[in-house]
Amino acid sequence: MVEWKASSYAGDNIITAQAMYEGLWKSCVSQSTGQIQCKVYDSLLQLPGIVLGTRGLMLCAILLGIISMMVEMVGMRCTTCMSEAPAQKDKVALAGGVIFIIAGLLALAGTSWYGHRIAKDFYNPFTPTNSRYEFGSALYVGWGAASLIIIGGSFLCCNCSTDGSGKQPRYPASRSAGPQGKDYV
Prior knowledge:
elongated, alpha+beta, 5 strands, five-stranded antiparallel sheet, 12% strand
């Protein structure tokens, strides 16, 4: 998604013939006729530090998400891998959940950092009105995805069994009302 930040129409900036969008990998201009022109960033060294840092955080989040899915596949109870050691399998599932949470925190940090910079530049009195930007749709998608990844990792961590915790399952005591062998309903 390109729309990490979108041009703002605040103040005297009421010209809506074109909308500008900037993302982590390219910038685009959408005209009122429906034509969209995009340009990939030319040089890595020309980019602001916020874009480079957010790129790094998002790529790390994606990489850790892929790693955690592979770890979780090994730790799931429905797979036969490591089926002879269920305690180790639970630990692997817990590790996959923790890696999911870390991936979500990295994505949340990247999108929040970028969003903070947009808000800071928007409210800066020295920023010209025609070059102010607002939050783009990619930021909202990033915040939602990061939240879902953190919640999913938390569920995976909570789902791991705790055999060594000393808690025994509580079942109601069985009562036998009659002699053995006669079970009537």
